[in-house]
Amino acid sequence: MRRTLALVLGLGTLAGAAVPAIAQNAYAPAGAQFEARLDQELNTKHLHNGDTFTLTEHEGFFHKAPPALKGAKIEGHVENVSPAHPGHGATMNVILDDVVLADGTRTEIAAQITSMKEFVAHMHLLRDSAIIVGSAVTGHIVAKRTGMRHGGMMGAGAGFVLATSMKSDIVVKKGTIVHLKLTRPVSAPAG
Questions:
Q1: Structure pTM?
Q2: Which pLDDT score, from 0 to 100, does residue 114 have?
Q3: Burial level of 178, CB count in 10 A (0-12/13-18/19+)?
């Protein structure tokens, strides 16, 4: 019994010495998932490359932040910003740079946004349907008055082309909850 206990204690000591340094000063492990609230609106109509934004840790129902990240602010910036215009959809890359912990400690963060639906241009099915139906009715009326045939179909086709060429900007409202997953541990800053 004493030999087994000594062996277990000896292995435990060795295992503790073999723990990598990053795990000993990590604030949060890789793979941790949590939620954050966007502190200002992101709109491709008004943003420029390099514009900054912040997210504040939010106590989520399903994803609880690691204790060290409670009240933290995540700082980031946008790149590849392009507003929408006819025939071209909006683009925006969101880059997460640093995390500022509640005690003021600033360190790098490597995380991915796992809730991407907020960061894509919205489809306007009702608007597009109204354009197509309105164009079909207009085409029918014009064809009827000019004695042409298939005006409704031609009008609907023209409406479809118009509706598909109309693109929307990416708009993420202030207060939007964003789901994040750490891809590397959040560790104490070097130095």
A1: 0.64
A2: 87
A3: buried
